Amino acid sequence: MRMTVTEVEYVARLARLELTPAEKELFAGQMGAILGYVEKLKGLDTEGITPTSHAVPMENSFREDVAFSSISLENALANAPDRAGSFFAVPKVIE
Predict the structure, then answer these.
(1) Domain total for the chain?
(2) Contact 26/3 with Cβ under 8 angstroms?
(3) Best CA proximity match to 87, nearest among 76, 13, 69, 66
(4) Residue 70 lies in a domain
(5) CA 68, CA 3: separation in Å to the nearest integer?
(6) Containing domain of residue 24, as a range?
(7) N vs C: which end of the chain shows fewer Cβ within 10 Å?
(8) Which class for 31: exposed (0-12), middle (13-18), buried (19 or more C-beta within 10 A)?
(9) What CATH number should be reported for the domain holding residue 22?
(10) Each residue of 7-41: pLDDT tens digit?
């Protein structure tokens, strides 16, 4: 399938790309080759082939949700530049 320079200009305008005339010619050929390959793939018999989303079987890799003790208040505020009681003190940003 052959892409025209006009079609490349249209796609470039949608993508807000500025192309030189040489780039338009180059991309017309490259995009035409890609579309030609897709046409060739459409001819393959995929009857009975299960669609896949990954090349290898995937399993849930999340860890178990286990409760444990959290950091102490003193450790959390140990490096705070300023604190107000048991909170981080920050400068006022809204007047």
Answers:
(1) 1
(2) no
(3) 76
(4) no
(5) 60
(6) 5-42
(7) C
(8) middle
(9) 1.10.20
(10) 999 999 999 999 999 999 999 999 999 999 999 99
